[in-house]
Every structure is written in C-alpha cells, then in structure tokens.
Design a protein that fits this description.
Blueprint (H helix, E strand, L loop, with lengths): L18 H7 L1 H4 L4 H14 L3 H28 L1 H9 L4 H9 L5 H8 L24 H24 L4 H26 L14 H4 L1 E3 L18 E3 L19 H13 L11 H4 L2 H8 L11 H9 L1 H13 L6 H4 L1
Parallel strand pairs: 1-2
Helix pairs in contact: 1-4, 1-7, 3-4, 3-8, 4-9, 8-9
Bound molecules: manganese (II) ion (2 copies).
C-alpha cells in the first residue's frame, strides 16, 4: 500500500530559474543512474525477496528512492517554472523566448518544447527512461553487488551535478541526495556480507584449477598488484590456447544427415584461393556498364584499363539511354511514355 504526504523528504530552495541546469538534472530523474531506476530496481527485488531482513531493507530504500525522485523532479520543475509559463503563454518575442531557453549554451529547448518544462522521464540527452536500466537477476549475491555499483554510480552523478551549480539551495539538496546513496551503498554491502558464502555468487562452485589463475593475455606494460600477485593467483605470463590440456580446437558430433548438409554448404561456399577477382572499387562503374552493353550469350570484353577510363568519362548517359530503350514497349515511343 502506498500513502503519499505532500511534503518533501528534504527542503528544496531554488534561487532562480535555470532551464539549462534543469535539463542536466534530468539525468537523475529519468536517467540510468537516476531515482526512478533506483526505486524500480529495489521494488522489484523487494517484492521477489523471501528473506525478511532483505525484503524490509529493499522496500525501505525503494520507497526512499521515490522520495528522492520527488525531490529531484521538484527542483527540475522549479528551475523550469519561468520557461514553462513563457512557453505556454508566448508573451515574449520569438527570439527573446528562444534565447531565454537556450541561454548559456544549454539544449534545454528540446525537452522544454516537447514536455512544456515539466520533469520528463528522459535522461539529460533526451533519451526516454527504460526498464533496461535495471539489471536484476533474482539472486541476492549478484543483485546486491549490482545495487552497490548502482549506488556508487548515482553518488558520482550527484557529485558532478553539485560541481556545475552555484545555487546554494540546489547544492544543499543534491548533497543530501548524494549522501543518501552513500548510506544505501553501505547497507547493501552489509546485507551482502550478511549472507554466508556470498562469494562466488550462487551455488555451483568454480572449477578449482581455473578459479585463482591470472592470465596475462595482453602483453607489454605488465603491472603486478594484489589483483594478480603470486600470493593470490597463479600468474600465467604467456598463456597458450587449450588451457584445459586439449588442443584448443572446436568440434561437434553431428547426426549423419546434418553432417551431409553441412559439408554440402561448405563445398558450395568454399573460397577459391587461386583467383584474384576484380572488385567494384577497382573498376568503378565501368565493369557494370560493359556487362550491360554486351548482348546475352556474348562474352563481355575484359575490362582493359584504357577502356575503363574512357567509359568512366561519360558512363551515365550511355547506360541510361540503353535502359530507357529497353523499358519502352514495342510500338510506343519514348516521348509518348514521358
Ligand atoms: Mn536516491
Ligand atoms: Mn540510493
């Protein structure tokens, strides 16, 4: 059950309208790291969760993210309030109105025009919100890790937004929203480590001989750290194909009927390595024209270099004329058709 209180979780004071800033703030309204994505992510996880502790945590944070959505949406609406009225009422001269929306080099006129200055569920580039932003897979040891990363990304976007505004009220509210994401990140991390055997994620154990191996597959500029140290990993300096001990080949056992068709197709599409075909890029349009002008049954002249150049000079008219002649039915003239 939802109940709404028509007050915000955090007090919002906007000093002055700024459609350009409003546009950038849309990133946290309808963007991939935004509040709607966060709320939907945790709601869907919470509804599907059976562990009472995690269910409570997920639904608390999901509901708080909706409160954040309300805060960021309200800031956007206030920043656009002037533009909204101006656009709707059309009181200014066209150029004045245009400048007021696009001043400061922002592209807010795109969202302002389309959405009338209201907070739209798009990111700061105008791309519509999508459920594809949510990568839940229904396994808490994987989903909690994704939630931790999502909170980290949301924190960084808020940090960037704080860095581009000098409005103290907006800075203050964004600082609150940014801080809450840090708090959520910690809760999710605690919840992850409250699951025994949370690593590796899931139930099936890794194959032991490959679990703590580091393959140095990009050569040049090697750096050794804890991520590939001899203490933590078996470092393979020069990895070779077939790490399983096999030859690294690939094979499949096909039923005999499919083996026959697979071989037939392979034979039909086999490369002739003894040929050196002339490509369209080499002859330009000339080869196609030569073939068109050759009556059926007669071999086309080899595209000699000299001929190709000569035809290239005026190819279009000749080709067009012959095509036109062909298209005119017997007894009718080209002029009549026109
Ligand atoms: Mn949030
Ligand atoms: Mn959060």
């Amino acid at each position: 059950m939802f109940k709404h209180i028509k007050k915000l979780q955090y007090t919002v004071r906007v000093a002055a309208p700024n459609p350009g800033l409003a546009n950038l703030l849309l990133e946290q309204f309808g963007g991939p790291q935004g509040e709607l994505a966060a709320a939907c992510r945790y709601f869907t996880q919470g509804i599907g969760e059976d562990d009472p502790g995690r269910k409570d945590l997920l639904l608390d944070i999901a509901t708080e993210e909706l409160s954040h959505l309300e805060i960021i949406g309200t800031i956007i609406a206030l920043l656009n309030k002037g533009a909204k009225g101006d656009l709707a009422e059309g009181i200014d001269k066209e150029a004045t109105l245009y400048r007021s929306l696009t001043g400061g080099g922002n592209d807010s006129h795109i969202t302002s025009l389309l959405y009338g200055g209201g907070p739209a569920l798009v990111n700061s580039a105008g791309a519509p919100w999508t459920a594809a932003y949510i990568d839940t897979i229904g396994e808490p040891t994987a989903d909690l890790r994704s939630n931790i990363a999502a909170e980290a990304r949301a924190k960084i976007i808020y940090e960037r937004l704080i860095n581009i505004t000098d409005d103290p009220g907006i800075k203050d509210a964004l600082g609150f929203l940014m801080t809450r994401e840090v708090s959520h990140q910690q809760s999710f991390e605690k919840a992850l480590y409250a699951i025994h055997n949370n690593f590796p994620p899931g139930k099936t154990p890794p194959v032991p001989e490959f679990a703590n191996v580091y393959y140095n597959t990009s050569s040049g500029g090697e750096v050794r750290g804890p991520w590939n140290s001899d203490k933590n990993f078996t470092y393979v300096a020069d990895p070779q194909p077939g790490v399983d001990g096999g030859d690294g080949g690939a094979s499949v056992a096909l039923p005999s009927k499919q083996q026959t068709t697979a071989q037939a197709m392979a034979a039909r599409t086999r490369s002739d390595i003894g040929t050196d075909p002339i490509t369209g890029a080499e002859v330009g349009g000339a080869k196609a024209i030569i073939e068109k002008q050759t009556p059926p049954g007669q071999a086309a002249a080899a595209p000699k270099k000299k001929a190709a150049i000569a035809i290239k000079v005026k190819p279009a008219t000749k080709a067009k004329a012959s095509a036109k002649d062909k298209a005119v039915p017997k007894g009718k003239t080209a002029a009549k058709k026109k």
